[in-house]
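Preliminary data (for renewal application), NAP complex.
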Amino acid sequence: MLQKTSHFMRQANLINGEWVQADSGATIDVTNPATGLKLGTVPKSGKAETRRAIEAAESAFQTWRKTSALERSNLLRKLHQAIMDNQQPLAELLTSEQGKSLTEAKGEVAISAAYVLWFAEEARRTYGDVVPSPWRDRRILVTKEPTGVVAAIAPWNFPSSMLSRKIAPALAAGCTAVVKPASQTPYSGLAWGVLCDEVGFPKGTVNVITGSAGEIGDELCGNPLVKKLTFTGSTEVGKMLMAKCAATVKKVSMELGGNAPFIVFDDADIDRAVEGAMVAKYRNSGQTCVCTNRFFVQEGVYDTFVEKLAAASDKLKVGPGLEEGTQQGPLIDEKAVEKVEELIADATSKGGKVVTGGKRHKLGGSFFEPTVIAGARPEMKFMKEEIFGPVAPVFPFKTEEEAVALANDTEFGLASYFYTRDLGRTVRMMEALKYGMVGVNEGLITTVEAPFGGVKESGVGREGGHQGIEDYLDTKYVCIGGLGA
Ligand code: NAP
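Predicted structure:
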């Protein structure tokens, strides 16, 4: 049923099927990054509320784990339908708190729904094995069981879809969840509570808590009832949470930072590469973990690529996300703008040349101009640091070996992209890049059917694909003996 945006904007937490305030009554303000104005508040919950949510999830788990795969699948299909029926209001809510263009927000809501449908389908395929036994009188079975209560912590850049990849496989596997959205974008996370509640998931199956990250995080990581933590966010926080989960040996999935290289060889289709570069750089105003952080372009096409990328960047329409035709919204906050300014200042002080953009947008607030920087060099900060903004540094290179060495010279290993028309080089490159994901002549590769995730300090585990449900299942080996020879 189609609802209004206000229907989904809950200024309360969902614990055991009840919409409640923090025990202390304290709240956090939520701001619209396009206007700087307050949108509303959410509860500032802490340890006690989190513990109650975990206990509710544990109690719900005792029933939910016994449902059949078909029952779970059918309910998830209803959830998928409810999301698609409400794509517009959910997207408007997302844009209001996050800033991205309404077109991108609608895309994010659609992919959230697509993950739900995908895992509704995968719920029915969590096969075990019957293994040939080395003994005549015994049989060996391998079964899959839901892991238990899952804690899910999400970032602000994709406040809907990052939760979809966690909630959907958890519910599909037979797990229950306690969800913590980012404080800057809590409403899209709370909307998951509204939707799950309204399509009929039993109370306590999905709980949503907002508030003090440290307190909530400590309880989620320390409480032995939580059997798995799934986190998307910065590498710094991810490492800390992994360490905290060690005390109770929880399973963890970590989707962390990236430092994506985008390599363009002399033999590439340059127009296609520029088209891919625009999506891989400027989606969500450059605030995605798979956004290109470093462009590496071979000498023969360097000038042409820079010129075409700058021309395309110039044409991007920057504006409030809800305004018709907007392609790039504001950055999330003032801190993000300052970080981008610092990186540009560092680059120009080391010889980088701003070809286009380079400063705050005339719209003010946290709007920033799409920026291209030529003459990028490895000693500049964005060689190692995540930019998380609309800045495209372009590094020149001479040989394939040099490109591989530069691309892999980072502790991160999430997404990577390269453009070439040479088949041999394609295979060499896809094997040489130490990344969890590789786009070959493609700048936008995320899809529910494929496993999303990184290597090195970009994380552990995969979301999406048939692999995406595995992290929510425990494997059990059963040996049945005494069967007679
Ligand atoms: P963040 O600062 O790490 O925050 C992510 C989440 O962790 C938020 O909900 C935050 O809560 C929470 N958090 C912060 N400190 C915590 C603590 N001590 N205990 C428990 N939770 C805590 O990251 P972000 O700035 O929101 O997101 C940007 C980062 O996410 C980038 O590095 C980006 O690359 C990464 N990312 C990765 C993927 C991927 O799939 N690999 C996808 C998207 C984003 P509060 O909001 O309340 O502080």
